[in-house]
Amino acid sequence: MKIGITGNGMIVERMLEDIAELPVAEGKAICVRPRSREKGEILAERHGLKLYTDYEAFLQSEAFDTVYIGIVNSEHYRYAKLALEAGKHVICEKPFTVSADETKELVRMARERKLFLWEAFKIPYSPIFQAVQGQLDKIGEIKLVQCNYSRVSSRFRQYQEKMVLPAFDPKQAGGCLYDINIYNLHFVTGLFGRPKKVHYYANKGFNGIDTSGTVVLEYERFWAICTGAKDSTSPSYAVIQGTEGCIRAEGPISSARTVELLVGDRTRVLARDEESGTLKGELKAFAAQYDAKDLEGCYEMLEHSILVMEVLETARKDAGVEFS
């Protein structure tokens, strides 16, 4: 798999580092906005990439067949659509798009063109998630699910001074739900599917963006409570409580290192993730599908991405968070 990279933020730097360590993928080019040329030049030189500042010219390159999109949320749909139209496979960072309809349109295009389209989120490809899936029957009837991913954003102090960067900008689909709490929603819906009802109780900043909040998902026999915060900090965790015991992961579920099963007075480690905090797990999964030409496996996962976008959109509207 040969990859062209768009963007120059922290997630792009992480992606470039992980690609460099994996034999299954090769970075070939990077595209940044003209005003970001200086940083683009640094990244291009460091990783041996060809630099572009024109996205359409970048898409015409035959040096790569897959585009990784690691840019501001509001541009995911447009960049992914242009890449698919150019005949490129696409890896798009979360959140996939701003709306569920945009995601559905991209999925339709990928299917029509027989192209791979992946949402870059590690959870379903991690040994943590797979272990939880395989051990749910050990804790009896599920009664409560609680997930918390809370940390003060590096951009929050600037936001308090009324300096609005993309992370807190409604015009660029910022906010806590689409950035942090989305991991909790991916985890819960990946395990239990579509909830019956969705409610979002959000703390909003001066410009109406959600800086923290709790999504409550109602299932047939239990509640799932998903909390995310970019304005405050607490220990992060995921706990699934059943009548016979519980499953517990310490830390954000997107980067948890271990997950435990607790039944009675016995605790057992179910899995460890040695690649926690990296993008290697998902890259390996994407490359395996690519090499096997497993388009149907890719499209099956896209149905989950559509579900998550529908839950996200419902939650955002329930809390009255508007993207302009």
Describe this structure in words.
With 324 residues, the chain is an alpha/beta fold. Helix content is 37%, strand content 26%. It contains ten helices and 14 strands. It has helices at 10-21, 37-47, 55-59, 76-85, 100-113, 127-135, 156-160, 176-192, 280-292, 295-318; strands spanning 2-6, 26-31, 50-52, 66-69, 89-93, 117-120, 142-150, 197-204, 210-218, 223-229, 237-242, 246-250, 258-263, 266-272. The protein has an eight-stranded mixed beta sheet. Helix 5 (100-113) packs antiparallel against helix 10 (295-318). It is globular. The two termini are 36 Å apart. The mean pLDDT is 96.
Helix content: 25-40%
Radius of gyration: 20 Å
> What is the H/E string?
EHEHEHEHEHEHEHHEEEEEEEHH
Mean pLDDT: 96
Total number of β-strand segments?
14
Number of helices: 10
Biggest pleated-sheet summary: 8 strands, mixed
Lateral arrangement of strands in the main beta sheet: 8-9-10-7-11-12-13-14
Structural class, please? Answer: alpha/beta
Spans of 5+ residues with little confidence (pLDDT < 50)? Answer: none
Quote the beta fraction. 25-35%
Report, as a whole number of angstroms, the end-to-end distance: 36 Å
Outline: globular
Keywords:
14 strands; alpha/beta; 10 helices; 26% strand; 37% helix; single chain; six-stranded parallel β-sheet
